[in-house]
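Ribonuclease P protein component
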Amino acid sequence: MLPRDHRLRGDQQFKKLARYGRSFFGSAVHLKMVQSGQQQTRFAFVVSTKISKRAVVRNTIRRRMREIIRKELPQLKSGFDVLLIARPKAATLEYWELQGQIVELLNKARLFSS
């Protein structure tokens, strides 16, 4: 589980992301990010029923994405709000394939600290 201060919560924060966020697309994941001015980089994860009608599948994808981010957290820059949205292909990927996609998107967004 992600530490509490790295979780994105609240309607206003999501609206800010939707309105001003920069988008990066992968085949299985869509990343939206905006600079927040906070000390930590905060994350939120969305897996809609379009991905699968079964909650078990959606929760598995969400857990995998959360774990991938938790492992990458020490190498990430601070001060950003990031939204990861699963796309239909995410349901068919293995963990390591999903990890590769997310790391690639984080690289595109230049969220890794040098």
